């Protein structure tokens, strides 16, 4: 019996990995968006960033398949000069799309973590993290785009380019740094929560899978030297393409992981408030909306009849000693003839 795939070509490996992981990414983003819309009936900025990341991921997958169709995955001796020229163009476009998709998934996660941040100091740190991600994106994007001299900026084989191996090491190494910064952002947030160690560990577990991206990128570092020094570029670079697809998939999936229904439900039941979204079915939402409408209609700040104590929770944990919950004790009021509020006698 013959083998299903030819051993002298890596094109099935590249194609199958690319499309299987793309399906995983699409399912992850769909689950995230479905969960958010079901719980909050709206999407937020981090969701939009994730959708954009998915779009670039899809386009990149198509570009990789076009490169494979042009001879990528075959040995260099089996590829014509015109085919190799097309392969280099597709790899060039794919590398730029990869960086854009990776950046958007990083920003999506960073923005989501910021939406959970309670204090202005933590929000400032979150803004700094987002700025560092954008700076990394600009440097790596334009560095990759103009790695080789114009007009053949895609020609890494015959063109005048700066050290390709050193540049790949820089991109991968700085990618690890930005992911560790995002992870530290989440850990600082968890450390600031006044709650039990057990609940902190559960919360930390939501962000721990992000370290898989770092692990995959470290694996990428081990392949760079062997792949870039290969005299068989259409065959030798395939391993780098596969690991990049894995990194991209993990980056998007782990950015969606914390917003799946079990984790969002856990956060809500433990008093965590996600900025920018309100659940129209919740009691707090209905009450605040009715109070706002009532005050605007009556023209003063005191409702006519309130006999219950209202607990307004604005912090991470209802039972936390450091919670910023405010208990507003209210009593029945009436107005005197001059329109001023007057306490009714018991």
Automatic annotation (TrEMBL):
PANTHER family in the record: INTEGRAL MEMBRANE PROTEIN
Name by which UniProt lists this protein: Rhodopsin domain-containing protein
Source organism of the structure: Penicillium argentinense
Superkingdom field: Eukaryota
Keyword Transmembrane helix in record: yes
Key word Cell inner membrane present: no
Domain Rhodopsin as annotated: residue spans: 31-265
Keyword entries, A-Z: Membrane, Transmembrane, Transmembrane helix
Residues annotated as transmembrane: 16-35, 47-70, 90-112, 124-146, 166-190, 202-222
Ranges where the record places region Disordered: 322-346
